[in-house]
Specification:
alpha/beta, Rossmann fold, 4 domains, five-stranded parallel sheet, 14% strand, binds adenosine-5'-triphosphate, ATP-binding
Length: 465
């Protein structure tokens, strides 16, 4: 038996097909063909029976003749039944007389999924039935997933406080408020643990798609040979290991947002496929020849240097242009020191609850220590440090000792030995830069008074408002 027939058999899987035709000989011929290929067959010889059989036996597919009464050729009868079948969500394949393309097109426009000309080609007919059955199965599975997703009690973001008090984060907030309601693709850049994933979800929550799914995919965690199936889904039997149907992430995110994290990990040979969906909205489920249409907003993120990947020929320029309609660069934690206290207090409260230690506070020494650390792992690292401190706490105040931060930070911040006054000037310039020139906030970071900072700004001739 050839592969097409094997696929038909595996897709038949006891599927029930209703043959709706007034010609007894045609019903018999089709019955023989379909039964021999593993389908359960029921029959209807007039319009009334079609509706009745559909309600009672709930077939998985209907093969519908367009002209029930032998002497009519208008096809109106078939179109009328088609309309009634639409409500039941059962796929319908039309059977039309040879040469009646116009009628077939009308049927397709009104919701039929395919058409077959009489006299039929056996392999073609079996193939079409098999494809429509698996497509419908995928559709149902997909609806099931979406119901599951929409019944999620709370999103990740609703459980978390979004902290953005520093000047750098305030600027990002302003941008997010502007771009979230649009459908534009967004690329989020930034070091590990800076909050790229949380920001992606925030953009989704602030968009008109908020009631639809937010689907996140970590591209770095997918083996190369499974990318296509992960993104676009596959049909049973599409490749050796495809034992079950799989709904792709594009389909799951339909009407919602798709977040592709670590986009730099997308293999070069698959980049044209993603580019095609972004350009045309079209893609195919693996193993199916039917073209699907995606309606998703794409948010992607990476900590990789995409420009370097471009230079090295590992990332396509045209794909980057599609992804980076809008770019947001998350600042590292060491450049948003005004967020250190609220972030730490947020984690203190969270882990205090988790480990049943209430009313925990940070000593001023501990806060200063946190502000001096270089945080290569950014907010994720801060959350781990605070979790450990909560576990180690013996009183309600967390001190420097519980933070267990070593003193090697200076090396990792890349500070070089230089005249003290020069270092002072550099620190002040940096503080003014990360606070967007806000003197009060910069003074807080440097832990000096506002007047002391003004004096130094004058001394070093640094511009301020
Ligand atoms: N603005 C914020 N307010 C509160 N918590 C935050 C904020 N940003 C990030 N976090 C927390 O920091 C941790 C890391 O965030 P997230 O996973 O979004 O970072 P990421 O940049 O996507 O990391 P990676 O690059 O490793 O994928 C999470 O626990 C997240 O809840």
């Amino acid at each position: 038996m050839n592969t097409a027939n094997n696929n038909t058999r595996s897709n038949a899987n006891n599927a029930t097909v209703l043959i709706a035709d007034d010609d007894e000989d045609i019903r018999l011929a089709l019955d023989l063909l379909l039964s021999a290929n593993g389908f359960k067959v029921i029959e209807a010889s007039d319009a009334k029976q079609v509706v009745l059989q559909t309600q009672r036996q709930k077939p998985d597919l209907v093969l519908l003749d367009m002209n029930f009464s032998r002497d009519t050729t208008s096809g109106q009868e078939g179109l009328d039944i088609l309309k009634q079948l639409q409500q039941s969500n059962i796929p319908v394949i039309l059977m039309t007389a040879w040469g009646s393309i116009e009628l077939a097109v009308k049927g397709l426009q009104q919701g039929a999924c395919d058409f077959i000309e009489k006299p039929w080609n056996k392999a073609k007919l079996l193939n079409s039935i098999s494809q429509q059955l698996s497509h419908n199965r995928l559709k149902q599975e997909h609806q099931g997933y979406r119901q599951l997703l929409s019944s999620k009690p709370q999103s990740k973001l609703q459980n978390k406080n979004w902290i953005a008090e520093s000047a750098a984060m305030q600027a990002i907030e302003q941008l997010v408020m502007q771009i979230a309601p649009t459908d534009a693709n967004v690329l989020i850049l930034g070091e590990n643990g800076t909050g790229k994933s949380l920001l992606a979800e925030r953009i989704h929550q602030l968009s008109s798609r908020e009631d639809n799914p937010f689907i996140a995919v970590n591209m770095a965690a997918i083996p190369d040979n499974l990318f296509e199936s992960e993104l676009f889904g596959h049909q049973k039997g599409a490749f050796t290991d495809a034992k079950q149907h799989r709904v792709g992430r594009f389909q799951l995110a339909e009407q919602g947002s798709l977040f592709l994290d670590e986009i730099g990990s997308l293999p070069l040979n698959l980049q044209p496929k993603l580019l095609r969906v972004l350009e045309t909205g079209h893609y195919e489920i693996l193993g199916s020849s039917q073209t699907e249409h995606a309606n998703v907003r794409l948010i992607s993120a990476t900590n990789a240097n995409l420009n370097q990947l471009l230079k090295d020929g590992e990332f396509r320029q045209d794909l980057l242009y599609r992804l980076n309609t809008l770019v947001i660069t998350m600042p590292p934690l060491r450049e948003r020191l005004a967020d250190m206290q609220p972030l730490s207090e947020n984690f203190l409260q969270h882990f205090g609850q988790k480990y049943q230690k209430s009313s925990l506070t940070l000593s001023s020494g501990a806060l200063k220590k946190l502000q001096q650390h270089s945080w290569p792992g950014n907010i994720r690292e801060l959350s781990h440090v605070i979790e450990r401190a909560v576990l180690l706490a013996t009183t309600t105040e967390i001190g420097i000792q519980q933070l267990l931060l070593d003193t090697t930070d200076i090396e990792s911040t890349g500070v070089t030995l230089q005249p003290l006054e020069q270092a002072e000037q550099q620190l002040i310039e940096k503080a003014m830069q990360v606070t967007n020139g806000q003197v009060i906030e910069a003074a807080k970071i440097l832990d000096i008074s506002r007047n002391a900072l003004y004096r130094r700004l004058e001394k070093f001739n640094i511009h301020y408002e």
